[in-house]
Amino acid sequence: MEEGAEGSGGETGEFTFAATPQPRTSPRRAAAAAAAGPPSLADVPDNIPVSISAFLRCRADRVHLACLNRHWSRAVRGVGRAPPPILRPLPELPPQLPWLIFPNTEAPTFYSLITRRHHRLLNLPLDVRRARPCGSGDGGWLVLALDSRHGYALYNLGSGERIPLPPEYRNPRHVPFPLVVRAAALSAAPSPGTNYMVAAIVNAAAGDTNAALWMEGNDTWFSPWGMRAFRLEDVIFFNGVFIFVGADERVVTFGPVHSPDGTVFFARGDYDMQQREDYAEDVGYGARMRRYLVGSRGCLLMVIRYIYDGSTLTIRVFELVPMEPALVDAALPRVTWDLLGTELEGRMLFLGRGCSRSLEVAHYNGFQGSMIYFLDDGFVAVPSADDRTVYSFTDMGRYDMDEIATRPWPEDLYPTRSDNAPPTWWLH
Predict the structure, then answer these.
(1) Is the pLDDT reported for residue 165 higher than 50?
(2) 116 contact partners, CB below 8 Å, separation of at least 6
């Protein structure tokens, strides 16, 4: 209704309504209503919460709806009081974007990009709240460094399921070393009948990094030869193998191989990496570079953040491409990194150590392509005013490749620091 139209309150645009005569209620009905008590959410027909769920695009909001009371919970789970076909099936959720987790020992939270809302992570065990996430996997799984000495576990944020991981790794000579994980990647969500694996970048002597691999059922991690020279920066599971990338941008793969006797071992794959033309120029700029691997549309991408004075100023994306071998009988495939330019062609990227993802914008209403979301995921703690060690959330944002510009993100208020770990992704 336009301002000043019939029924409006004049120029202020406020509406007034005439009083509506109310039907008269008999004394008997009034007494029955008083005896029944005030109306309750439990009296709402089952189809109402199911219909409301159709308007909730985020899984977290549907969970909150189901928690209002047990009747609504049963309705949205399809086991309500009304039998089919009276009770309609719960509408399917649209594809979910990763949730952003802000760890904290007292009040951990997560942020939904779809609804732009923060939620409390309730009912987490104390040791999980105190743990440091080292990587994320599909289905809500995290790789956690527990508060106990060198204790590690896989933990599911939705179900609370926990799978202990060995506390040490062994080199090819079977010498044990304590496990200190910087980043980790899962091959698949743990489930019955699934042979899942974990690969990690771990601390080594003299400040170096090393690779460690674990397979379900093993009592220790295995560390292959020659990985310390790579100065590893990231690892992902892509096209059936774990892929590591180092500071010199070489890559190496490890994939499971089943031998005739039924044992499974990791087979290594190396490449004849041809350094990109502007690599030396990049290194000479003086920026701190942080590299991430992303699987996208069947191709392997390397995303580099260029950090100046603690802030990410620019991001570039490269694709691993094959090259003609130098020799006909060359033992290693020859590859190089090719710059993609400023177009992601309908994709958006979410960067995180061991858990980066590429998603198609066409599957998500209201989101733009060529966007890269990045976190302040450096494991560099700073002292606080009250003499505690905290992790800062200052260098996180959204990079627009079209405008070649970085913007703060999330736009809403969010925690600015954590007392136990950097932020990470909750993958669905």
Answers:
(1) yes
(2) 410, 411, 412
